[in-house]
Amino acid sequence: MSTALMIEIFGYIGCIFVIISMLMTSVVKLRVINTVGSSISAVYAMIGHSYPLAVVNASLVVINIYNLIKLSKADGNHYDMIRGDKEDSYLTYFIKHYKEDMKKYFLENTLELSAADTIYTVCCEGVPAGVLVGKKEGDVLEISFDYTTPTYRDCSAGRFLYAKLAEEGYKKFICKEVTEGHKSYLEKMGFVKENGVYVKNA
């Protein structure tokens, strides 16, 4: 295989990564994959002495890294937590809109709002990123579901949420009905399985 052909293939690999990144629903995955593709494309452009293209791709790498760092910070500069109500028409719409995706992570009976008395919505710069629904017993919150939209699923919305809930006075969080698809998220949030249920201390 000639050197010129290898360089050409290298360039196509960068293009493939950029195209794949555009298919991602997760902001983090999009930026990570785009960073890889843009890095390869920047090197390819430098090899081919296409300096304007190299500058564009290098700039995309810097922008992606900056935004990934910003997204990784669970602070009030990017997220807000809003107390909700089960009679809220937007909440009903939100659950209906994401219900098929939610059923991948939660049992359908846990998506009912009838027994809930505690609802919080997490927003990222004004855009709804997730909803937590549960029932409060003293300083313990039994969670029915804690759902994050695909766009923010790999971000710090969950860490922000539980930090803010601790500030609200909750000492313990409990998830009784947990699916296989939701276990990894709970473990990342610091939940531990005890006597068949997942528990997190604030």
Strand percentage lies at 15-25%
Low-confidence stretches: none
Question: Which strand order spans the largest sheet, edge to edge or round the barrel?
Answer: 1-2-3-4-5-7-6
What separation lies between the terminal Cα atoms?
Answer: 59 Å
Shape: elongated
Order of H and E elements: HHHEHEEEHEHEE
Major β-sheet annotation: 7 strands, mixed
Write the layout of secondary structure elements.
Elements: H1 3-21, H2 27-47, H3 51-72, E1 79-83, H4 89-102, E2 118-124, E3 127-137, E4 140-148, H5 157-167, E5 172-175, H6 180-188, E6 192-194, E7 197-201
Helix pairs in contact: 1-2, 2-3
Protein described:
There is one protein chain. This protein has six helices and seven strands, in the order αααβαβββαβαββ. Strands 1-2-3-4-5-7-6 form a seven-stranded mixed β-sheet, with helices on one face. β6 and β7 (197-201) form a beta hairpin. The relative contact order is 0.10. α1 (3-21) packs antiparallel against α2 and α2 runs antiparallel to α3. The protein is 48% helix and 22% strand.
TL;DR of this structure?
This protein is of the alpha+beta class and 202 residues long. Helices cover 48% and strands 22% of the residues.
